[in-house]
């Protein structure tokens, strides 16, 4: 059996999650082609990288790349009101299908997703909506029901970054481990990356002297206690930050979260009792056979 400690196993796993230069280069190329296509039809004001890619929690082989395609207000306004965000999403989908005819292009709840061979780009239509009290740009994005909701990716990123620094980088590490965990489960757990990071940032889970094993267990426990429900935005910008997109996803995710939480607790208990091999066996169950021993 391996002589690695639990901490060393987690560090080894984190190292393997770093995206390669080839992956990053490919993402940049895909973003460029998506931007060029949208610019040919829409009055594109900005093309913002948001989500995991902008926060440094992108993981090799698994993370989607989220972008805000910020269009002119005139593109989404008809008279004194705004058109349905569903209409804008359909227009984006039609345009991207025309360019990426050999890729899978489909509409999700709040984005148009383009599946390339090596990655996925989620394109979120948005328009400028002013600034926050802290002078960060505000945008309106699809709310999933045809309307528009406020968001401020810059402010949220700054908040997560501040909390990550207070945790000496453990929020970033734990978020990446959680994202890898959701990909390891079968079926994949459709838990929102943004939700994971906002829970970690707002609850202080990673503060103090804690191992990644403790942080992972605590966040799984907290999400299970909340029954995978949305959380109120602590910055009072976006209203509710949802964990998943549908009730069916919530039910399926909660079952796996509870299962993983129970085995994570068993792993911590075994580690405390100095039974390192049993702790590793339990973490291997959590990560569905992909925990490095």
Characterise the protein shown here.
The chain is of the alpha+beta class and 293 residues long. The protein has a single domain, classed as Beta Polymerase, domain 2, CATH 3.30.460.10. The chain contains eleven helices and eleven strands. The strands form three sheets. Strands 1, 2, 5, 6, 7, 8 and 9 form a seven-stranded mixed β-sheet that branches. Strands 3-4 form a two-stranded antiparallel ribbon. It is globular and about 70 Å long. The model has no long low-confidence stretch (mean pLDDT 95).
SS strand fraction: 15-25%
Helix content estimate: 40-55%
CATH topology: Beta Polymerase, domain 2
Shape: globular
Give the averaged pLDDT, no decimals: 95
Task: Outline the low-pLDDT stretches.
Answer: none
- Report the radius of gyration as a whole number of Å: 20 Å
Under the CATH scheme, which architecture would be assigned? 2-Layer Sandwich
How far is the N terminus from the C terminus?
8 Å
For the record, the CATH class is Alpha Beta
Name the CATH superfamily classification: Beta Polymerase, domain 2
How many helices in DSSP terms? Answer: 11
